[in-house]
Amino acid sequence: MSINLEHISKSYGKVEALKDISFKVHPGELFGLIGPDGAGKTTLFRILTTLLIADEGKANVTDFDVVKDYKSIRKSVGYMPGKFSLYQDLTVEENLTFFATIFGTTIEENYELIKEIYVQIEPFKKRRAGKLSGGMKQKLALCCALIHKPKVLFLDEPTTGVDPVSRKEFWEMLKRLQQKGITILVSTPYMDEAALCDRIALIQDGEILEIDTPINIVKHYPKAIYNIGSKDMYELLQKLKGFENTYTMYPFGEFVHYTDKRDDFNPNELQQYLEENGLKEITIEKTKATIEDTFMELAK
Ligand SMILES: Nc1ncnc2c1ncn2[C@@H]1O[C@H](COP(=O)(O)OP(=O)(O)OP(=O)(O)O)[C@@H](O)[C@H]1O
Predict the structure, then answer these.
(1) Are 225 and 258 spatial neighbours (Cβ–Cβ below 8 Å)?
(2) pLDDT for 211-263, tens place per residue?
(3) How far is the CA of 89 from the centre of ligand 1 (A)?
(4) Ligand 1 centroid distance, CA of 221 (Å)
(5) Does ligand 1 have an atom closer than 6 angstroms to the CB of 41?
(6) What is the pTM of this model?
(7) Ligand 1 atom having least distance to the Cα of 36
(8) Ligand 1 mean position, distance from CA 68 (Å)
(9) Predicted ipTM of the assembly
């Protein structure tokens, strides 16, 4: 097993950041930790990368114990922390050389692994890291996390604050790294990125809500879900809030995702209610649940 957690708990004073967390990540898997701010993702990463000790439970990374074998783990994993971790005053090249040196290696020795990513930032190699764009910083941080050829890669919210094009490119890079045999644990608050993982764990308030493949997670969604559209979104939300049979409703792109309390829900009845309440250009269409819908349902 590449990563194995058994009953891990961690508190900061009265705040229970992680409550009895157990799961496994298989070798070569791209595993996502999906949850909002404060869910406990960073705490989990810090425990697995040996920077923090859990109060209870045990964890292994590549067969090494996170407490007893911390030195071995540090040699065999790469960690890209959530907050920008590079030296802002060093250039791109200097940052990379620095990380290579502390792992007792050189850029040349491991160039093959980072090449594809590094060529994209090479034109800026004399630029200070602090002066790079968000997407460029992220690519440099990934190169630094890979410079010692880790077996397991930990990426804490690597795409937060990065533009959509760079986010897409980043996930394509992760897929290619996975094909090279690297096990990846990645956290993200973006539900669309969750669908790109082999398996995901939905996490909230230090607890795992569900673990499965993205496809199975949405299959478990218990209700029929509808896209409701109208010219006036604000009014639509207000009127749905006042409708006695509304079970859940929340904005989803240009629509509201709606579920009804009843199993024999008739969309025509809702259409009539909304029309009687002055709404115009109403559309009601059945849609498929997304990971976000499942998360909202489980987190209720
Ligand atoms: N050093 C600390 N001292 C006290 N409380 C902390 C500390 N670090 C984290 N917490 C609290 O523990 C909980 C989990 O935080 P954590 O940073 O692990 O979550 P997260 O999912 O990574 O969220 P974020 O993306 O906001 O960092 C939060 O309630 C947070 O406020």
Answers:
(1) yes
(2) 999 999 998 888 899 999 998 899 999 999 999 999 999 898 899 999 999 98
(3) 28
(4) 29
(5) yes
(6) 0.89
(7) 21
(8) 25
(9) 0.94
